[in-house]
Amino acid sequence: MGSLENDEKLLRRIPLEAITARTLNKIANRLDQRKYLLTDDGQYFRDWRGLLEYADLERDDKESILSKSEHFTTRIVILWSRKPGASVLGFVRALQKMDRYDIIQDHAESILKDCYSVQQSTISQIGINQALTLQDLESLSRNEPLTTYDAIVLFGDSDLDLKFGMHVVERLEQSGKKVFLYDRDLIIGAIEHEAAMEIVRARCKKVIALLTPTFHKNKISLFLTSYALHLQNDPDKMTRIIPVIYSSQHLESEVMKNIDMYSKLMYDTSRPYFWKRLFFSFGDINVHSDLLQMSFPMPDKFVQNLTLPEMSKVNVEPIQPTAVTPVMDPSVSRIESSASSLNESHESFSISSTTNLIFPKTPSEEPSSSSIPQSRVKANIKG
Question: 60, 165, 250, 306: which could form a disulfide with 155 (CB 3.0–4.6 Å)?
Answer without folding.
Answer: 165
